[in-house]
Each structure stands twice: as structure tokens, then as C-alpha cells.
Amino acid sequence: MPRMSILASWAATASLMLGAASAQAAGWSASSPATSSCSSTNLFASWTYGSYTVNNDVWSPCSNLAAGEQTIWANTNLDWGVTSDQPNTSGIKSYPHIGYSVNKTISSLSTLTAAVSATTPSGGAWESTFDIWADSNRHEIMVWLNYTGTSTGCGNVKPISYNWTSAGCAIPLHSNVSLSGGTWNVFVGTNGSNIVYSFLRTTKTDDTTIDVLAIMKYLKSLNYFDDVMIGDLQYGFEITSSSGGLGFASKEFAVTAE
């Protein structure tokens, strides 16, 4: 075959391979519009990959708070992300996340860990956080890894808390708690539907492995609950504002539950 024909054939094959790779990279995506209607399209669009489910979770329009445009995408549990354009107003607009159903009691587990490697923006108001549900959603445990507020409960995002300073900062009930390779301030409060326990990592990070079982055992040791059933273990980005469209991504989310 002449050299030019060989090159043309190789180029055509490479183009087909690149096209296939691009098609695979596209994976799944869904976009929700700027809206104040709870019935708008794709607010809760979801996609399942093996034992994991990715959810757009733009829930603020269902709480009478307008949300901006948001597009979520995913290839696997190890590669997903979101671009969100939320207005610079108070109140959480969305929690795009990935979830894994544990459905085991604390005592039945010898290991429950979750690995995270995220990309987060420098601006906006948000937290990169786990949301762990237990005892039929009576207890919500949030584990803030990175966030735009402060670990002492101040700033443009704040944890739910029973106690507040005169300056409007949440007050931790437990400070500088050593768990899972980090130090945490722990806040406790209610959102009106369930009790929320918020662990704010005093040194922020986008890359870590969390010992979820150790956190659950810690709360159990303080008699906040007994040998509860752990339900969904979620990780994502709770977004208050991301004006202009900010990107978030998660590359290594994986759960080990044994």
C-alpha cells in the first residue's frame, strides 16, 4: 500500500478510535434550568452505575427558593462532576452528589470507609461534604472536608447548630476531635426534620479517605444514638452560591463496607 494511503488509513482509524473515546467520555449528563418551580425538568435527574447513584439534587425550588442552572455529568463512580450557576443569595440551592446504600448496623460492620479526590473552585459559597443518613433518616451526619466558611462556624457557609454567638457564628459542642486522620469541630442542631451532626475538618482537604465507621462509633459513644442502621452514604457539593457557573468534580469516590 502506498505511504499516503497507509497514513490516510491510520488517520481514519485514529479518528474512529478518538470518536469512540469521546463518546465514552460523554457518559451521562443532565441539565436543570434556572427556576423557582419544583416541577422543572431534571432537578433530581439521576444515573446508576453499579452500586452507586449520581443525583443532580437541585432541591431549593421545592423549598420556595429559586435556583440557577446546573449540569451534572458522570462516567463512573470514579469520575463525575457538576457545573453550577447558583445566584448569590442566602440558602442552599443544591447538593449534587453520589450515593451508596450501606444498609447495615454499626455493630455489623468491621470497616466502612470512603475515598475522595475532588476538584473545587476558589470562589462561591459551598462545602464539599459527606451526608450520612442513619436510623431511617432520623440522624444526618455531615462531614465537611473543604468549604468556604471557617472551621469555627463562621463565614459564608455555616453548619446547623443549636447554639450561636452574638456575631451569628455556630458554636461547636465538641472541639478539636481527633478522628480519621484529621481534627474536627463538631456541631449539633436540627433542621426541623432530623438531628444534624456536622464535622468540620479544621484543616481543609480535597483528597482523603474517611473512616465513616469511626465517626459513627464516636457519636454512639456520646449516646447520641445506639446501634443504628446506616442507610445512604452520600458525597457531593452543597452549593449556596456559584455565580457565573463554577465547576466541581470527584475522581476517586469509592466505598468499602464490610
Automatic annotation (TrEMBL):
One GO molecular-function entry: cellulase activity
Protein family (similarity comment): Belongs to the glycosyl hydrolase 12 (cellulase H) family.
Signal sequence, renumbered to the chain: 1-25
Keywords per UniProt: Carbohydrate metabolism, Glycosidase, Hydrolase, Polysaccharide degradation, Signal
Record flagged with keyword Ribosomal protein: no
Organism: Trinickia symbiotica
Protein name (Swiss-Prot/TrEMBL): Glycosyl hydrolase
UniProt cross-references to PANTHER family, sorted A to Z: BLR1656 PROTEIN, XYLOGLUCAN-SPECIFIC ENDO-BETA-1,4-GLUCANASE A
GO biological process, one term: polysaccharide catabolic process
